[in-house]
Write a structure and sequence with these properties.
Strand order of the largest sheet of chain B: 1-6-2-3-4-5
Largest interface: A-B, 43 and 33 residues
Shape of chain B: globular
Number of strands of chain A: 10
Largest sheet of chain A: 7 strands, mixed
Radius of gyration of chain A: 32 Å
Oligomer: heterodimer
Strand content of chain B: 25-35%
Shape of chain A: elongated
Number of helices of chain A: 36
Strand content of chain A: 5-15%
Number of helices of chain B: 3
Order of helices and strands of chain B: HEEHEEEHE
Helix content of chain A: 55-70%
Amino acid sequence: MSAAAEAPRRLARVAMLGNPNTGKTSLFNSLTGLRQRVGNYPGVTVEKKTGVMQLGQGEAELIDLPGTYSLAANSPDERVVVDVLSGHVAGIERPEALVCVVDATNLQRNLFLVSQVAELGIPIVVALNLWDSALKQGLNIKVDDLSMKLGVPVVTTVGRTGQGLPALRAAISQALWDKPAMTRIEWPESARQAEAKLRESIPEEVRNQLKELEVQRLLFDADSPIVDRVGWDREDARRVIDEARQPLWDAGVNPLAAEALFQYAHLKKILDGVIVAPAKEMPRGSESIDGILIHRFWGLVVFVGMMFVVFQGVYAGAGPLMDLIDGAKEWTQDLVRPWFESMPMLQSLVTDGIIEGVGAFMIFLPQILILFLFIALLEDTGYMARAAFLMDKLFNWCGLNGKSFVPMLSSYACAVPGIMATRTIDDPKARLTTILLAPLISCSARLPVYVLLIGAFVEPQLGPVWAGVTLFAMHFLGLFLAMILAFFFTRFLIRTKPQPFVLEMPAYHAPRMENVLFRMYEAGKEFVQRAGTVILAITVIIWALLYFPRPAGLEAEETKAFAAEHARILGLSEEDAAADIAQDEDLGAALQAHIDGAYVDQSLLGRMGKTLQPIFAPAGFDWKITVGVLASFPAREVIVSTLGIIYSLGGDVDEESGDLRQAMRSETWDDGAHAGEKVFNLPVVFAIMVFFALCSQCGSTLAVIAKESNWKWAAFAFAYLTGLAWVGAVIVYQIGIRIV
Amino acid sequence: MNEATSTNTISKLSQLAVGAIGRIKSIPAESAVNQRLMNLGLLPGMMVKIVQIAPLGDPIAIEFARQQISIRRTEAALIEIE
């Protein structure tokens, strides 16, 4: 191929588009392999995927456009498709060829989008995917006739097996040279008049930049966002567009229905004689399965069972792997610690700061991989749409839809994978709302706090029944508030236009292992990249707040005081006591715990705790609890070990620790109005639990919110959650002290 | 179409029972859901079948033109069937 040798070094750009559920992503993955880049389109949270595909001896860049049914630019996804195809996205040149992936079992509907796109005149190759399903259903599609009538190459493919891929590659590289243009619809006179009229009324300098397709979008769509590009305000737009639509009304066609009517009439002509439907309609396979899976009773039974498996998988199945990561973290700390023996500050930064913090984040990786395994399976088989169908009513009233269910459920294990799972929600408004509310769901990291406090106070004082009720109530509280907040967020806060709820229930398919593994790999990779950047920074900041100022002589002072106390109790001389402590391992550990406690007391964070305690006083918190709360902002489970350090028990206590429970039970106020009274009475205990149930104490979650939306929303989430937690804790405490 | 079917009562898509089949009489273009449905090929004259109603009574799953789509009851109430 001599032409290939002369080809410019810059790669040819090919875009892939098609309806959702056509196996487009699977084809994209097969064509590009792991040579992909995932990002966002500028200014919107629409995922942008590009990759490089091999074409014979050459290569081309392939852009995977979001799956859409139509170019009627209602959603951000659809708008991105229109903008990319019209060459209006900064940094992305207009593609030179398009691969239109269509579902062979539902050709007419799939060709609607292709026929819309044909208006652009960009060379097109049609990939007739799911060809095996079409054959199985007895559909007889005359591919050559179809290709002739459409005027573009049509290649049959089976994304699942890779069948037809070589032919598809060949057709794409051929199309880059031949530039086959697809047969365009013949618009009736009324539509042509309307379009011409509209084009004339667009200011000249804009008119020349607008593609014919964009003028059509203005003409046929309700509230097209292209109005903004023209520079009209809403009033002008309505007036001008209404005027231009008059020829359609005159012809007796509602302009909003016009495109569908004309296009489907056109497609009917194209497909006439091309598809020979089987004499007897073959079952599509989905009906019999759906008889059970969306049945009013059995559907729910299967759904509950299915979700139980997912939840158990994420919650319990990840356990051993998480222990493994935790072990690896500790092993690395022990390995690294001696290297910095001469530099205690660096030692602390590396082991207690960086390795501890990043390790505590990486521990979520197994949960993410397992959740995405299930999500990929649920989506690939087509069950996810059924789950959304079953659950929709529960979420509908508060402005969300059934697709919020899986992310919300996953958030009971951990909000990080839960928020990543919101990518399955296609309505941007419902998606953002779900992202903002997922942290309210009681994740597994809150459990140690509940166990500690319920075990130490609720169970001994109120009995096991109330202990159980409390644990349930803590898990329910967040969900309950999330639903109520969703109602307000979707109405007053998030201004995005709601998407029409039209949910396709795709035909069932066996999952493709390659797709499943790819989803897991993608989710895991992004997550790990996060650990190296944002999490590292947050970790170092909190470490510094806990480490500094580290007054010189504090250690010696504490050692002396500890030895003096030991000497006094046992009636020893101070030297004997010091020697005793040096020999006895337990005493040594107790001394170290005292020193650690004293350092926390002196640290910037400890001082902040004392300064900020008045803010938390209405919730009954003393300064030690306040320090615990502050130290827990990067990761809430830290509270237990922080309390251990503060109560001078050392950092390696856990929520089952009898010592810690005892220390908390005997803690009294040093001064102030309550001097001498116990710090931990039931109102305080419940206030702490409510605070932890609602507060945004997870740097990882905030980082993921920022990634999936932007930093402004992450800041908002932090502010509203923390505010809500404070209000909740204060209400609980103030009511509590009045009834106890 | 013979006299008997054309005088058949006109009802709303939301009123059909599971398993019932109807022919679309009108589908008001002003609703965003209906525009989407028309883009998917649900046009006047087309046959549509109620496949299932969700356990909580909403949404409903309908079938037309070789595809299964679910929509909410309030939207289905706008579509006239004969």
